[in-house]
Amino acid sequence: MDNCIFCKIVNQEIPSYKVYEDEVVYAFLDLTQTTKGHTLVIPKKHVTDIFEYDEVTASQLFARVPKIARAMEKAFPEMEGLNLVNNNKELAYQSVFHSHLHLLPRYSKKDDFSIRFADNSSQYSSDEMAALAEQISEQVSQS
């Protein structure tokens, strides 16, 4: 893609702090460094978001994530956890429209990062939950 900042990074038109690279994946430090070592993992092939992945690209990208995560754990022995974050489409806070995974090392509960999930379970009956599951399941089987 011509005007994609991540494609330009892959093509070395823009500098980056490379962490890992092979024929399929490029991983580099996020300039925001939300936490020390915050790394982005991207497919070299331009894919806008999770909805555009084919099975091969998805399996190749996700197969490399544990290797990079383990390297981060060894590089930062004080790391106590890691968040894996992927935002898809603008409403979900995707700001660069080349799919990417954030690997966010966690050092303490006081890190400048949090994810909280609202508990809306009281809004759904057991029958409604079963209907939601069936609705998604039908689409999975058709894909």
TrEMBL record:
Residues 5-115 form the HIT domain. GO terms for biological process: nucleotide metabolic process. GO terms for molecular function: catalytic activity. InterPro entries: HINT, Histidine_triad_CS, Histidine_triad_HIT, HIT-like, HIT-like_sf. A motif (Histidine triad motif) lies at residues 98-102. It comes from the Bacteria. The active site is at H100 (tele-amp-histidine intermediate). Signal peptide: none annotated. Coiled coil: none annotated. This is HIT family protein. It comes from Vagococcus allomyrinae.
